[in-house]
Amino acid sequence: NSISDVIEGVTFNLLSDATPTATSTITITSSSQSAMESVQDFIDSYNQMQGFINESTFYNTETKQRGALLGDSSTRSVQSTLSGLLSRRISTLPSELLTNLNDGNGVDTGSIQIKDRSGAMATVDLSSARTVQDVIELINHVEGVSITASVNPNGTGIQINDTSDGYGALSITDLNGDTSAVDLGIQGSTYSKRINGSAVADAEFLSLTQLGVTSNLDGTLTLNASTFQKYLDENPGAVEAFFTQEKTGMAQAKLKKQGQEVAMLTISDTAGNPSAAEKFKNSTASIAGYPSADSGSKGSVILVGNRFQVQVRSQSDDFSQSDREAWLQKFDLGGLARLGK
After folding, report:
1. 328 φ, ψ to 5°?
2. Strand pairing partners for 293?
3. Inter-axis angle of helices 236-244 and 33-56, nearest 10
4. Residues 333, 135: Cα–Cα separation, whole Å
């Protein structure tokens, strides 16, 4: 017999005992080995890429030999992006317990109503939320409205962005006498595309350097295990937030053309929100063999492997529906379908 619903992530196997009335003491401790290995894997991959760039962009002043990618703008862009990872600072707010917000006065975890600028409305039940990360995920996974939640640039609260193509008011209100939206600093109404959210906590940021990751002269990285272990022991939630960001089961990227943002590319996993896949059940349209649907007048979305939503949303009037459909087919849809099995 086994029991797996007592402590999350722990399974007890019940074995026969010669003394069934005896008392057993079970000690459970957390292991940081997997976290350390994951960070080291990231550094190894980073260093492998940096090594390739170094080999491909070298120039020998004596022999006049040069790497095949010396002066290539795309390579320089990749190198700049990689270098930016080291100095990037990520807010630790997502890991903060809701009970610690507002100077320790906490947050009411009731229900809120969100109306996007197109007029669509949805209710978000926050009763299961324990951290700011939980709140962000619950808002991001709600079906029926075109909004995204994230930590504001100051790292002190939550901001709500409207991604619909409407021109009405974006509004967030409390329901049933709850004070969740007020406590989270997001209650309000605006005709802009964003509710910035008021401060509910002091700003705290974390960087790879603080976690013990340093840059070498050749651009590669080195992990100081003792520094990383110390920070992990002191604040494991902040370390997790740094590497997982704000959206579990979702990845986004901006598509730019000549420096202008023309589209937003998104992949989201509906496993944690099965209702998100309901709109595809009666779909008669398809793209690349997968059921498709429109998301407002500027979004095209398909369901891959009955699990993954892949969406392309125009950010420019010049990015047409045919452009969106063409970009949807640039994703590794077959690979996503295999992941869903």
Report:
1. -60, -35
2. 301
3. 40
4. 30
Q: Are 295 and 289 in contact (CB under 8 A)?
A: no
- Asked whether 149 and 159 are in contact (CB, 8 A), the reply is yes
Handedness of CA 4, 135, 272, 274 (dihedral sign): positive
Count the Cβ atoms, other than its own, within 10 Å of residue 27.
4
Q: How far apart are CA 328 and CA 266, in angstroms?
A: 10
Q: Which two tokens stand for residue 218?
A: 């050749």
Q: How far apart are CA 98 and CA 134, in angstroms?
A: 9
3-state secondary structure of 254: strand
pLDDT per residue over 104-150, tens digit each? 999 999 999 999 999 999 999 999 999 998 999 899 888 888 888 99
Rounded Cα distance between 111 and 334, Å, is 39
pTM exceeds 0.85, yes or no = no
Dihedral angle computed from the Cα positions of residues 104, 236, 238 and 81, in that order, rounded to the nearest 10 degrees: 180
What string of H, E and C letters represents the secondary structure of 76-97? HHHHHHHHHHHHCEEECHHHCE
Helix (H, G, I), strand (E, B) or coil at 305: coil
- Interstrand relation of 308-314 and 299-304 (parallel, antiparallel or unpaired): antiparallel
Provide the 3-class DSSP secondary structure of residue 39: helix
Q: H or E stretch including 172?
A: strand 170-174
Amino acid identity at 111: S
pLDDT of 270 over the 90 cut: no
Q: Which residues partner with 204 through β-bridges?
A: none
Longest C-alpha distance within the chain, in Å?
A: 82
Q: Do 28 and 10 form a contact (C-beta atoms < 8 A)?
A: yes
Where do we find the tokens 């005896």?
22
The candidate with the shortest Cα–Cα distance to 172, out of 150, 197, 152, is: 197
CA 271/CA 109 separation, integer angstroms: 24
